[in-house]
Amino acid sequence: MATSLVDYSRLCLHTITTKPWSLAQCIEGYTKAGVPGITIWRMHLDPQGAKESGKMLRDSGLTVVSLARGGFFPATTAAERRQAIDDNKRAIEEAAEIGAPLVVLVCGAVPGMPLAEARRQIADGIGSCIPDAEAAGVKLSIEPLHPMYADTRSAVNTLRQANDMLSEIGSPTVGVTVDVYHVWWDPELDREIQRAGERILSFHISDWRVPTRDMLNDRTLMGEGCINIREIRGWVESTGFEGFNEVEIFSHEWWATDQAQFVEKIKKAYLEYS
Ligand code: ZN
């Protein structure tokens, strides 16, 4: 198991973790709190656009870890599939503009479409975006989602499936994201983390509240749930991963609180339980 973290040098917050804040407020709040990394959700780019956001981020001195999120490739018509690919190409452009080295992919699913077909469309869609990503110097990362999201959010539900897709795509521009919330339950997790090896491009943390009251927006602070976060971090680091530990908490409960105080609670939980 990994040893406890001793400082905040590898701490990154996802802007959705402090969803009530604007991008400017996230930048100010994270900087004040000594949080060095930021992963930007596209909703936080929209009000001022990617270009202005890029300027704000460069001036801030924060490290932009990734852009969330691209994906949602499967669709029932060819026109919708093309639209999805175009949107992912826009996300790649935005990532380049804000200095994000990575676009995280929530791959998508369509209710009623066989999951194997959805995965085929996902692999095709990612393949269509690779030339743009290479030209922009931006990587694409497949984030497997917990199977409870296989209806509408992702047909890629285990790290094994993501690794299989990487083998099929066969491009160094594409890797995987390990998010403890989605994969902690998987008996093959350690083995598949070793298999992914240096293709692990990012690592997300939060905790699984018991009992969970909302399938999407009831994540909680590290240490408040049942995920073996530190053990999983140890597996990821044993592959040589030295990137940020990205705190990604969607929570109606936490969003309703004072966000500056929430950031301080995250910092405490980060050292104690991550
Ligand atoms: Zn995640």
Summary, kept brief:
The protein is an alpha/beta fold and 274 residues long.
Overview of the structural elements:
The chain has 274 residues and is of the alpha/beta class. It has one domain: TIM Barrel (Alpha-Beta Barrel), CATH 3.20.20. The chain is built from 10 helices and 10 strands. It has an 8-stranded parallel β-barrel, surrounded by 6 helices. α1 packs parallel to α2. The longest helix has 22 residues. It is globular. The model has no long low-confidence stretch (mean pLDDT 98). Zinc ion binds next to loops.
Total strand segments: 10
The main sheet comes to: 8 strands, parallel, barrel
When the domains are counted, the total is 1
Overall mean pLDDT score?
A: 98
Regions with little confidence, pLDDT below 50 for 5+ residues: none
- Cα(first) to Cα(last) distance is 11 Å
Q: What ligand molecules are bound, each kind once?
A: zinc ion
Instruction: State the fourth-level CATH superfamily.
Output: Divalent-metal-dependent TIM barrel enzymes
Order of helices and strands: EHEHEHEHEHEHHEEEHEHH
Tell me the CATH architecture.
Alpha-Beta Barrel
Query: How many H/I helices?
Result: 10
The helix-and-strand class reads: alpha/beta
Neighbour order of strands in the largest sheet? 1-2-3-4-5-6-7-10
Top CATH class = Alpha Beta
The name of the CATH topology is TIM Barrel
